[in-house]
Amino acid sequence: MDSTDRFHLYALGQLRKEAPQMTIMAEFQSSRALHQVKVAAKELEDLTNEMVVLRSFVESRYPKDYSVKRLKDLGSRLFDVLIQGDVKTLFDSAAGKERGFLPLEICVQDHAVAGWPWEYLYDRGRSEFLCQEFFPICRGIFTVDTRRELRRKRGKLQILVVVGVEPSDPEARPDEQIRWIQDALTAPLAEHEIDLKVVKPRRPEELQKILQGFRASGIDILHFFGHAGFDLNREEGFLSLRTPGKSPFKIYANDLGRLVAQLGIQLVFLNACETARTGKTEQPARSSVAAALLSRGIPAVIGTQFSMPDVSAHYLASMIYSALMTGRPLIEAVRDGRLAMGFSEDSEFFDWGIPVLYAFDPDLELFRPAKAKKWAAHFSAALESDNVVRALAMQSAPGVPSIFQSRTTVYPHKGKPKTLVALVDIDAKVGALPDLIEKANKVQAFYQLRLAYPPIPSGSFEPAKKTMSIYLPRIERYLAGFPQSLDSDYVCALTACQIDDGEDSDLLTCTAGDEGKVTLISTFGLRGYAKEAGVSFEKAVLFECIGSLLAMDERWDLDYHKDTENCVLDFCNDLGDLVGGLKHMKFDHVFCRSKIKDDAQLSAIDTLFALKL
Question: Three-class SS of residue 351?
């Protein structure tokens, strides 16, 4: 795609209360258009306040009555700021000339306005959000630097993942979290096509040393997983490196730019909040983390303008990386990733608008077209399906993009399993769970356990309480569709949070939906109880899942009991009762065992409890 096939929008001037006016210049091929935009002070204030409300809704689900209509209203007001008069005429003409795909490149001079959520532009004439259709948005910065032309490469994609967070639970090991990140990120990738390395530097100088070690081999993609922020005093964004027991180390935007310059990095993916935020008095290249990286020669940076659940951010990144490996241009790959984020039928989730692409060359093609890659056609078909999660879950060939961790999809027995079970690690970060599942599938043939990393809608978590909770009313309908999406008989969804059922109750386990096929399981405090019982965290998680599977199996009319029997079906209201059951690790409670009339199932449970890890 030639750059002349993009629609360029330049917003010049400033929107200030004392002089709320900008000049919008548009370019498409050899055509140009100008339009003077005047915004009344009251309208500017209302528009700014409405963007604050959007942020509040996406981050904390408040106000609760925020609707798609309200988002469309905001998007149409943003659209009218940029696209009016002759600019609108040129846009309509360009959209008519192109066969549906017309990337928009937006450069804004006003530092405060540059950070507005342009990804939600809504065209009332077409009744569509531009980013969701054929008009993907890319942000740019003003610069006089000349960018070198990058050649498309062959061979494996080199990805360096930098982990900047400490374990969320004090009993979790850093290596466990790193393994979880690696598995969650690589599941939707063609694993044989990538070389992925995960590092956890404790200080900026350690990160510098790691990066210098790649000067010879090069890095195609730098992926940061962690926290970020914006220093209001310095008017500059930063990434954070966190280590238990120490204050976080801040790597400011321009320092980070100096660290990553001249390493041949073609794309940076920032899985951290506010990496797209700009200052009010400093130009984006000096204040925004993403823009600062562009100014140091990085061709493209993907950041987030709001927070996004970890699994969803990894899923988005994987969709983009896989699309790039099929030979798609970057702007198309990001659009594919946005489309894949439309995983929920509930239209109140707006995850597709959270990612932000900053690029000098949004048409960048990292890889040559992948005509010889058999998985490429299946991946493209999955992206175009009505249910992307299900389409990826149905990919069965080892090593191709999938929702499931590939090592757990192998069924090493003749025939078919009696029961298909999907274990979904939402945010429990059970690092060695793939190893345990692989062993579990080998030693018994009744259950086939598969580990899945599907995306989770933003707003599923409730941060307002003393401890983070997952809010069941917001996610229940999505979870209830997992058996069909993940092609499984039962689903056990794992979260490190307590579960808020919407009735002021913090639960440790509950069913989702009316079919009784999905259980949401909290591992809150489970690491400590597993340690006290002398079993691994992964084995404790399996113990909890087996209990849920028995409770969901409608053949036996089993349920949790309140009395402590050192049984897998102890109710464990305060979790302390778990210690006895984890130590015992046998299913010999006479009342519960006698109800099960399937000897193969009982044998499988006994075998799973006897597993060593």
Answer: helix
- Residue 390 lies inside a defined structural domain of this protein: no
Q: Is residue 398 part of a domain?
A: no
List the one residue out of 94, 91, 73 whose CA is nearest residue 24. Answer: 91
CA nearest to 270, candidates 284, 286, 256: 256
Cα pseudo-dihedral 544, 548, 549, 554, rounded to 10: 160
Please write the tens of the pLDDT for every residue from 20-48.
788 999 999 999 999 998 888 888 889 99
User: 3-state DSSP helix/strand/coil percent for the chain, to nearest 5?
Assistant: 35, 20, 40
pLDDT digits (tens, 9 = 90+) for 243-265: 777 788 899 888 998 888 878 88
Task: Let me know whether 375 and 480 are in one domain.
Answer: no
Which residues lie closer than 8 Å to 299 by C-beta, 6 or more apart?
147, 150, 266, 267, 359, 360, 361, 364
For residue 326, give the CATH number of its domain. Answer: 3.40.50
**Cα gap 87→10, rounded to integer Å:** 11
Give a yes or no: residue 241 inside a domain. yes
CA-closest candidate to residue 583, choices 559, 571, 567, 594: 567
Nearest to 317 by CA among 298, 330, 299: 330
Question: Are 579 and 448 found together in one domain?
Answer: yes
* Residue at 142 is within a domain: no
pLDDT at residue 587 is higher than 90: yes
What percent of the chain has pLDDT above 70? 90
User: What amino acid is encoded at 81 in this protein?
Assistant: V
Same domain, 334 and 415: no
Domain that holds residue 162: 157-379
What's the whole-model pTM score? Answer: 0.88
Contacts of residues 206-214 at CB distance under 8 Å and 24 or more positions apart, as own/partner, are 207/162, 207/241, 207/251, 207/259, 208/259, 210/160, 210/162, 211/259, 211/260, 211/263, 214/160, 214/263
- Domain count across the chain: 3
Least confident piece of the model among 156-160, 215-219, 305-309, 452-456:
215-219
Calculate the average pLDDT of the chain.
Answer: 86
**Domain termination residue (choose one: 104, 135, 166):** 135
pLDDT in tens, 190-201: 888 888 899 989
Residue bearing tokens 């149905």: 394
* Distance from C-alpha of 581 to C-alpha of 336, rounded to nearest angstrom: 46
d(CA 445, CA 276): 49
Statement to judge: residues 452 and 538 lie in one domain: yes
Structural tokens at position 490: 């039962």
Separation of alpha carbons 437 and 479, rounded Å = 21
What size, in residues, is the chain? 613
Name the token pair of 156.
Answer: 């494996």
Q: Which residues have a Cβ under 8 Å from the Cβ of 414 and sit 6 or more positions away?
A: none
